[in-house]
Predict the 3D structure of the following.
Amino acid sequence: MTTSDMKLVVVGAAGRMGQTLIRVIHETPGVTLHAAIEREGSSFIGKDAGEIAGAGTLGVAVTSDPLKAFLDAEGVLDFTAPSASVAFSGLAAQARIVHVIGTTGCSVDDEEKFKAAARHARVVKSGNMSLGVNLLGVLTRQAAKALPAAGWDIEIVEMHHKHKVDAPSGTALLLGEAAAEGRGINDLAGQSVRVRDGHTGPRTGGTIGFATLRGGSVVGDHSVMLAGEGELVTLSHSARDRSIFARGAVTAALWACDQKPGYYSMLDVLGLS
């Protein structure tokens, strides 16, 4: 650690992504783990965050008090749950620091609260923090724009581990939004098909379909399928290690540190917007 290292807080520190974030921060020059937060009553409170994450002793004890940690930090990395992320966004706004949000399953109301917090905080939010997925989003938008809706149907297929609680995944929705943008669709929710069961009749033209698969320990597989008459174009991404999301989150925090308060995406971070 040097005095110039960006001081980062990991919330949900004992979870799968929290542990991955701690390891990646420990391995990455220019950043340091300032604090690790868990829920009140967690059995991990008081334990060394590095030991929980398999990164060795780091001298940072897990705490349940985010307010003090945020006030002394420069950024927070958040892959928790919508209600928790909304609360953390308020604290990040008070502290006027960077808030990187990888939480999925957020409502429209949650998004409005994140944008309100961005008047004072530097918020970077994305359904997926990886470079490859965000590039896939750009390619999806271009393909959807290039191939006419009258002759080409779009289906998004995703698979995740059996413990994932929201569907479609945040990444699938990110890709759906990219496809909708390419097609000039302003209301993805109204033009998407999330469930098919029984006698559905023929596919409605111009809609964007989503298929969700869950099982095993799959980190995340996504495919955008553009189906025309007699041909099929498939764009896909496969995540083999969740550290790609953690590295993306750290990259986003370092980028946002030099920005004005505002609401940003990974496309902004990567210069793809």
